[in-house]
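Message: A physicist's question: would you kindly supply an amino acid chain plus fold tokens?
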Amino acid sequence: MKVVGRWVIAVLAVACAMALYAAPGPEQEIAGELFGAPVPLGNYYFAKRVVLSYGAKWRGTPQDNQELEDLVWRELVFSYEAFQRGISVSESEIDKEIDALTAENKVPFRWRVDREAFQQWTQETMKVPVEVFRNQMRHLVQLEKLREQVIASFSPEVTDAEAYQKFLNEYNTLSVELVEFPDRESAVEFYEQVKVPPPADALDELVWRDAVRSFFAAKERNVSEEEFASGMGKLLAGHLLTFNWTNDETAFAAWVAQTTGYSLEVFRDSIRKLLAVDAEIQARYAAGRPDAADEPVFAALRRKAGSAAEAYRRFLRQNPRGAYLRFADFDAAKRFYQAIQRTAGRWDDWRRREPKRFKRPGFVAMDFLIHLWGFRQADADAMSALPIGSIYPPAPIYKGFGVFNVLAVRSADAAAFTGQQEAYRQKVRQIKQYEQYRRWADDLVNRARVQRLIAE
């Protein structure tokens, strides 16, 4: 069970309720040293259980054992620093945290009044006695007070230009599709493949090839309702609908008729068949088999026809029956593809082969892309200046490198900045304070000269 609150709490017992920096007794085992001071083994296990049990603003969530050990020792360093600074936590402060925690988790009792129920809750939900739970809260509040104290000690300067840039980053919006790579070399290799603009007849070729693929997919691929709903949702996400297509069928049908000229039933059937086409593409690619349209008989048909349009017409004449994707004529097929934005090109070809590698953060503020996805400011600005559909070269992101396809851009109204200058200066100031805090924390850990004596 998990308890949701200011800290995410996993149910793990904490073995020790002692203050983290009680001096070690003569017979206590030592886990290591920091700042030349011995760390009792009990303190180490206390900190480890806290890190495993609670998320906190001053650290992330450990993804493996090495990260866990690193975070445990950072926790001990911070606790030592709070001890040296004389940062204390009152019983009333602990009570307020428990008030917030129990309220956010809708605990069905008043813990200050019904102490028996509270004790039962900590034992059954948290798997620890009340005293241990309160000691956990004391430790976390103490480290949060340390964090707040350090951040408040920084007074960075903020220029007008920085405040204006923050405003632009919040109101300039950008939508991209990206592919992640672990290194620049892999990203460059992919970029060289996809940067070439598609030929003028690329859509013609896609329509022809999809018809052949659908012929095979109709026999071999089934699209589940879950896959259909997911695929439809992804397709419609790029159309910026003003209604919920899953529960407003009247509005959905009207949009389909206006956009494609088809009934909702025909539209759904066509999308289901295209999803089966994509499943066929992915299965063949994963198995190392040639694309259905490159099978010898169909490749020969394409060569003899001379054009994709003629090949399409001949294919339909040769296969008048079957549950594959067919339109009244070639031009009708192209119009449908254009309406649903099923585009042709090398980028699109790769997405249809390996869709899980392609990610869309959404049509979001540049601030979101910079701080959560790790976009550089210069790259975000450059992407925003490009025409829709442009492929942007490899650039660093939060993990490795990305190659980007620009989908949509919306610019901020510069006049809206008037009267908000001070508010944006404060936002930038807070960001700079946090950046200074992170540098301070890293420097503190380095100065601690941690010596780990316990086996990880």
Remarks:
- DSSP finds 18 helices and ten strands in the chain.
